[in-house]
From TrEMBL:
Consists of three domains, a large central CORE domain and two small peripheral domains, NMPbind and LID, which undergo movements during catalysis. The LID domain closes over the site of phosphoryl transfer upon ATP binding. Assembling and dissambling the active center during each catalytic cycle provides an effective means to prevent ATP hydrolysis. Some bacteria have evolved a zinc-coordinating structure that stabilizes the LID domain. It holds the Pfam family ADK. Residues 30-59 are annotated as: NMP. Monomer. This is Adenylate kinase. Its EC number is 2.7.4.3. GO terms for molecular function: AMP kinase activity; ATP binding; zinc ion binding. It is found in: Cytoplasm. It comes from Sphingomonas turrisvirgatae.
Length: 216
């Protein structure tokens, strides 16, 4: 089973990918992580990538393809969860080839769909206790006593600078721009399945499992 997992920041993609790793023995293949790992391990592709990066150049599609091939060869029977790849039609084509060369194929492209306004509310409402780190939310989880931490009685709270509306909307726009070139390709092949990323974590996992098991 090989899948592509798509979703904007805040949709819970990382959480779902690690659940699939724990429960199904699948392996998440994020190109950034793979690149760092290959460079560190000094694999043939890692050495090639290192030279390119040290020369201040961008790692080419050919190197990324080789990197994915190298990683897939280490997986044995484990299924792959592609994260952040492919981004272009050319990469989508390469991926088909890389998989086919290893007797694999792409089974599903699962997109965690979010409602942008609800996501803005979810993210911009978050704050934490400055002393103990207890998490709160303007709409969903205020302290029982105003301005007093339930856990430690502290009175100071903080918000992450990135948790603002403009950043959330910018990230959504970036996500749409990044997926726009590849979604139609996989739509045409009937591979795209959508899951409500705003549901609670367990429900999202159930929905993904249903797809993987052919129940949805
Ligand atoms: Zn506290």
């Amino acid at each position: 089973m090989n899948i592509i997992l798509l979703g904007p920041p805040g949709a819970g993609k990382g959480t779902q990918a690690s659940r699939l790793e724990n429960e199904r023995g699948m392996v998440q293949l994020s190109t950034g992580d793979m690149l760092r790992a290959a460079v560190k391990a000094g694999t043939p592709v890692g050495l090639q990538a290192k030279a390119v990066m040290e020369a201040g150049e961008l790692v080419s599609d050919a190197i990324v393809s080789a990197l994915i091939g190298e990683r897939l060869d280490q997986l044995g029977e484990a299924g792959a969860i592609f994260d952040g790849y492919p981004r272009t039609a050319a990469q989508a084509e390469s991926l088909d080839q890389i998989l086919a060369e290893r007797g694999r194929s792409l089974d599903h492209v699962i997109e965690l769909v979010v409602d942008e306004d609800a996501l803005v509310e979810r993210i911009t409402g978050r704050f934490t206790c400055a002393s103990c780190g207890q998490g709160y939310h303007d709409a969903f989880k205020l302290p029982a006593v105003a301005d007093t931490c339930d856990a430690c009685g502290g009175h100071e709270f903080k918000r992450r600078p990135d948790d603002n509306e403009e950043t959330v909307r910018t990230r959504m726009a970036e996500y749409r721009a990044k997926t726009a070139p590849i979604l139609p390709i996989y739509e045409a092949r009937g591979l795209v399945k959508r899951v409500d990323g705003m549901a609670d974590i367990a429900h999202v996992t159930d929905a993904i499992e249903a797809i993987l098991d052919g129940r949805a």
